[in-house]
């Protein structure tokens, strides 16, 4: 009997283009996963429409449904847990998550962030990279911890910052690499090749000294 597909729940607040990259890779047969739930804190998030079109169960739960942020996060993650995912993927989920709900998910929740972490945690990463005069910008997939965008990094993708770039143009160019990066990282995790050992990311059992780099490391 073949093994069950690796089960993934995705949390997204916006348009869901990284979610779509996972859907497309699954549909193409290059990513052996099952997307068991797409949840959002916004009822009008386009990510939910993408999930519905792909036949994936959805959940829209607004923060107004709970009296406190901690209560909301506990309710949201209880509902996500009911879908029994092996991994939670934050793909443009624009909320800071209460640390208490993350504890049971240590090593089983990842985020994709549009900067070369540890540079520029938080918002407005493209503008900040341009204003700093950076020659390179990029995206990072990392394990989620209580520290905002501060969990152990798995891999990154880099692009050059061009003269005259605007935040919008830089974001548009980076998005293509974000999609490739997320799919590649999820494939490694689903295959059991990437794991988290305490605060160390391991590839095939060996601790990574630095994050993997898309397009240079032999994945």
Automatic annotation (TrEMBL):
Q: Which residues form the signal peptide?
A: none
Q: Which residues form a coiled coil?
A: none
| Active-site feature positions | 113
- What pathway annotation does it carry? Purine metabolism; IMP biosynthesis via de novo pathway; N(2)-formyl-N(1)-(5-phospho-D-ribosyl)glycinamide from N(1)-(5-phospho-D-ribosyl)glycinamide (10-formyl THF route): step 1/1
Q: Which residues bind (6R)-10-formyltetrahydrofolate?
A: 69, 94-97, 111
Query: Where does it sit, as one GO cellular component term?
Result: cytosol
- Under Enzyme Commission nomenclature, its number is 2.1.2.2
* GO MF annotation terms: phosphoribosylglycinamide formyltransferase activity
By its UniProt entry, which InterPro entries does this protein fall under?
Formyl_transf_N, Formyl_transf_N_sf, GART, GART_AS
What GO terms in the biological process aspect are recorded for it?
A: 'de novo' IMP biosynthetic process
Q: Entry's Pfam families?
A: Formyl_trans_N (PF00551)
Q: What is this protein called?
A: Phosphoribosylglycinamide formyltransferase
- Source organism of this protein record: Dokdonella fugitiva
Q: Which gene encodes it?
A: purN
